[in-house]
Amino acid sequence: MGKDAQPQEYNLCVVGPDGVGKTALPIQFTMNIFGEEYDPTIEDEFSKQIVIDDEPALLNIWDTSGNQEGYTGINNMRLMDLRKGDGFLVYSVTKFLDREVSTDEGARLASLLGCPFIETSAKDRVNVEEAFSELVREIRKYEKEQQIAAKAAEGSSGADNREDARCACRVVV
Ligand SMILES: Nc1nc2c(ncn2[C@@H]2O[C@H](COP(=O)(O)OP(=O)(O)O)[C@@H](O)[C@H]2O)c(=O)[nH]1
Ligand SMILES: [Mg+2]
Question: Which GO CC annotations does the UniProt entry carry (predicted)?
């Protein structure tokens, strides 16, 4: 990819219960700061451009809040907006000083859901870049699968079913 290539844009969304660190993570990621230095009520959308696996990516991160509806941190008004997101980052780990979810439990759930599991610390800037990069990798993987499926569908519906189209069709089956 050339130097002047436009970065692919990804709309990410941070969701989870109140007080788990949803706001701290994108702030650490985009501004390299943690804690009182930033007033989280100022904005709920952050952007950062990074290179992931040699491909430039522009990440638009939407930090959800407003928990009148309880657990998810998303009220009904915003559910529609949420659908615009390409990827979702959902997490929660500790409460006060007690660890409530073990690493094993987290990893097991992630494996059950078929998604990557990454423990982060916005405070110590541990695995912050990695969490966002991994999310973008997941989206890229998904998009690639979609493209293959679309190609296969095209091939199977066309009247002139050439060799390569039939081959792609078998991938979907
Ligand atoms: N020790 C520690 N505290 C954190 C971390 N991330 C957030 N916090 C603290 O947890 C509290 C809630 O964080 P916040 O980002 O506002 O949570 P939100 O309600 O999910 O957006 C704040 O007091 C943060 O300083 C972290 O990685 N480590
Ligand atoms: Mg918040």
Answer: plasma membrane
Closest CA to 152 of 171, 136, 133: 171
Please give the distance, rounded to the nearest whole angstrom, from the Cα atom of residue 34 to the centre of ligand 1: 9
Quickly tell me which residue has 């009182």 as its tokens: 36
Long-range contacts of 140-145, Cβ-Cβ distance < 8 Å, separation of 24 or more = 140/55
Question: Does the model's pTM come out above 0.90?
Answer: no
DSSP 73: S
Q: Tell me which residue range forms the domain holding 37.
A: 8-159+167-172
Is position 1 within any domain?
A: no
How close is the Cα of 115 to the center of ligand 2, in Å? 23
Each residue's pLDDT tens digit, 127-164: 999 999 998 998 899 889 999 999 999 877 654 444 33
Q: Which amino acid appears at position 161 of this protein?
A: N
